[in-house]
# Entry
Amino acid sequence: MLEGNGYVFVGASSAAEGLKAYTANDPDLVLVDLMMEEVDAGTGLVKELKALGSRVPVYMLSSVGDQMARHLDTTTLGLAGVFQKPISTSVLLATLKVRLK
# Structure
């Protein structure tokens, strides 16, 4: 879906792979799943990215995304936002268009 709309997508199936992909590709935006290979691995990856000095917007995907966004200050986690899974294609594309002008 991302590539079909003109974006370059680099995927990773674990936090360790995600960190390697981040350092190798210098992305403009990061989408991370809360639960990658283990519970809360996505949050750990976000913390590692911020420790590296990352300034790119990071969005988290979660099946509890709406609840998470309502009950937590996601900016304290270093997130630009949270998307509820299953993610709406139109919402994701609209967000990317605004953030990646």
Observations:
- Strands lie at 30-33, 58-62, 81-84.
